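Q: Got a minute? One more chain.
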Amino acid sequence: PEGGEPQQVRTAAIGTGELPAYPQMLPGRRGIVFTVLPTPTLLPGRSTSPPGARIDVIDLRTGAQRTLLRGGSRARVLSTGHLVYMSGHRLLGVWFDPDRLDISGEPVEVEPGPVGDYSVSDEGTLVFPSEADRRSTLVWVDRDGREEPLGAPPRQYVYPRLSPDGERVAVVLRDGETRDVNVWDLKRRTLVRFTPDPADNALVAWSPDATRLAFSSDRLGQPNLFW
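A: Always. Here it is, folded:
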């Protein structure tokens, strides 16, 4: 089917610095459940379930919009009568009434421990990566695709950057709700935390002489560049 011309859905109560995301059309075209994100969270690598996010619903018959939950994101309504959503790194669920387009009861944890990305089938089957699946190792890879481990312990490494002198690797590791830059010394075989402050530090780059590291950080509020 061609689908016709796109029509904008009028969203109320979306303020400056906010953006609707992760929409789901409800059965029978009754309404749309979606997340309202603070726009700073849309920077590369930032969390998609920040404290400032909320879950809203629009009634397509009346145009009315209201907030279902605050501090949650990436909601999905299931055929089982539940609404599941992310809160930080936890996956929670709550009863959802498709007639009233509202929730009831207290949210409960669907899966113990951190979950991260997830998907749910229409029948209610949950798919998500386990904690072990998110761990990785640092390796050399030659032009033929052969891998050689660097000896670093298995962790959740992202954004690895080799220093220009070839002696160290800067990586980003998550610790709870924050991320920090760490440096793996190839000779000493040690992993040292480079940014110990409680902030989101990421997207690291070396200076040409390998004496400085530049990175993004929100330690002063809005993300900015530091070294």
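A: The chain has a mean pLDDT of 85.
Q: Perfect, thanks.
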